[in-house]
Every structure is written in C-alpha cells, then in structure tokens.
Amino acid sequence: MEIIKVKQLTKHYGETAVLKGIDLTIHQGEVFGFVGHNGAGKSTLIHILTGIINKNAGSFEILGSPANQLNQVKKRIGVMPDISNLYDNMKDIDFLRYMGELVGDNGSKKQYLSLMKSIGLAGSERKKIKSYSFGMKKKISIAQALLGNPELIILDEPTSGIDPESAINIRNLIAKLQEQGKTIFLTSHNLDEIDKISDRVGILSDGIITELGTPRQLKEESEEGINIAVRTKPTLQKEQIKTLSKKIKVDIKCIAIKREYTLLQVSSDDDMPALSKALIDSNMHLYEMKVEHRSLEDVFMKA
Ligand SMILES: Nc1ncnc2c1ncn2[C@@H]1O[C@H](COP(=O)(O)OP(=O)(O)OP(=O)(O)O)[C@@H](O)[C@H]1O
C-alpha cells in the first residue's frame, strides 16, 4: 500500500527554486531515510506533505488523500514539531496530555510516562519544558509525534543533538514502530544511522531526488573498484605501490595513506591473492588487509 505518493512536485521561494520536480513513492511499513545537504529542501518537502506550506506545482497523496484533502488524514500522521514550537511553560507530562487530546489520544498518566521512558526521558517527568536541554526538547518532540498512534510518522532530524545512548534508544524505537506496521519518513545528517535503519534512502540534490534505493543498492552502484586497506610495518608508500603494481602486473591505485594504513584500489577482488603474496614476498611485515566497502557517505559525496 502506498502511504506517500509524490509526483513532479515543485516549490520555490520567490525566485529561488528549492524543489524542482520530486517523484517519490513510500510504501506501508517502510523506514525511508531522506538525506541532502543543509538547505537542500528536506524540511520544505516535509512542510508541504504535512500541509504547513503549499506546493507550487505537481501533486501528492498521503494515506490515499490528495493534497487538498489532507485534513481527512492529519490525525493518522505523527509529525515531530520544531522544538521552537513546544509550549515552554507547560510541564512535560501536561504537554503530552494536552497534545494527545488534540489528536484524540486520551492516554493515562502511566502511558505518557511510559512513552517518555521509551525515548529516554525517564527521570525528567514533571519538569517545565523551558527547563529542558536541547536534546531533551528533541526527545519530547519525538514523543509528541507518536501521540494518537499514527500510521505515518515523520521525523525531521530526530537524533541530531542527542547523546549516543539516547540516539540508540530512538533508533530501537523506530525499529519497534516499524514492527508494528508503521511507516517512518525521517531525515538525518548521520549517514551511518540512515544506513542502519532505513529500508530505502533518497538523496535530495539540486531540487530533485538524484539517488533512490536500498542503502545496499546505492553503495553497490557507486563501486568502481575494490578498496583495500593494508596495514604494514613500515607503512606502504606510493613509490613501493608503483613497484608492486609493475611486479604483479596489476593496476593498483593509492587512494590515501592514513597513519599505518594505506588505502589501495584494485579493479577486482581477484587481484587480492597476487597483492597479498607480493606484500609478503617484499620485506614488509603485513599485519592486516581488508576490503573497505563504500559507505553511504561516499554515495552522498558523489550525488
Ligand atoms: N520561508 C522561507 N522563505 C524563503 N526561503 C526559505 C524559506 N524556508 C526555507 N527557505 C530556503 O529554502 C531552502 C531549503 O530549506 P530547507 O529548510 O527545506 O532545507 P533542509 O534540507 O531541511 O536543510 P537543513 O538540513 O539545514 O535542515 C534553503 O535555502 C532555505 O533558506
């Protein structure tokens, strides 16, 4: 089932075109990671999809409702608000109860406390939001997005500014929500995190989605050769690589030398046996040799 369907959507602010034709379909139960540089237009798309601002052209449907009938499905969508929109003078638990009532969530105090605990806010209950740190405000805004048991949860940078343990809790929470059949649309600048938790990733660049696929597909598509990290003593230097390359008749590129590691590139893993033998036959002491797979960061940098 299609939860989000966007076709040729555009948005400009004055003369500046930010979204230049977005096509995107997100299915039920997916965790979709949406990434892009600062100012790429990720929040702009979220604001359009949630009815905060209007698109200029194109169309979209959310939970089967077209853009002009978003009100019909708003209660089924949980959106993490910007932390500047939280009611600072309210106590956290009262805030959740109040926001919950607005979406028909009449949970008990125990349920709200349990929600706070699940996102790492145990022990802070009954504090006024204005006394919260930045990270705590992010957490309570994630809690707000979960009120009313929404089917689609939209999280804009849920883990930025959050301590590592809480970020892990939030990732675990996202996995649990997915197990319950929820669809999660999230943005993050932490590409390792996106790689870990997303079923599919979209990279927004210059107003369009330039890369779309599973993290694995994107990483494999970007592979041009095999990168091999070699740790030797002494550290392998560029001149020695040239000599080795000639000796074994394998094209070996030196990508980088970082401390005791030398990062090499060969065209295929069939070149590895010859390379390891040549290293052992030379006077190098070979401590480690491992294939370094591309990361989403590499894909992102090329997008
Ligand atoms: N209300 C507005 N009026 C004019 N320009 C705007 C407005 N809102 C956003 N922009 C501009 O649109 C572009 C996209 O902004 P947006 O916040 O969507 O990017 P983003 O990808 O979410 O960035 P970040 O990763 O930094 O959060 C930016 O250049 C921003 O300055």
UniProtKB/TrEMBL annotation:
<protein>
    <submittedName>
        <fullName>ABC transporter ATP-binding protein</fullName>
    </submittedName>
</protein>
<keyword id="KW-0547">Nucleotide-binding</keyword>
<dbReference type="InterPro" id="IPR050763">
    <property type="entry name" value="ABC_transporter_ATP-binding"/>
</dbReference>
<keyword id="KW-0813">Transport</keyword>
<dbReference type="Pfam" id="PF00005">
    <property type="entry name" value="ABC_tran"/>
</dbReference>
<dbReference type="GO" id="GO:0005524">
    <property type="term" value="F:ATP binding"/>
</dbReference>
<dbReference type="InterPro" id="IPR017871">
    <property type="entry name" value="ABC_transporter-like_CS"/>
</dbReference>
<feature type="domain" description="ABC transporter">
    <location>
        <begin position="4"/>
        <end position="231"/>
    </location>
</feature>
<keyword id="KW-0067">ATP-binding</keyword>
<dbReference type="InterPro" id="IPR003439">
    <property type="entry name" value="ABC_transporter-like_ATP-bd"/>
</dbReference>
<dbReference type="InterPro" id="IPR027417">
    <property type="entry name" value="P-loop_NTPase"/>
</dbReference>
<dbReference type="InterPro" id="IPR003593">
    <property type="entry name" value="AAA+_ATPase"/>
</dbReference>
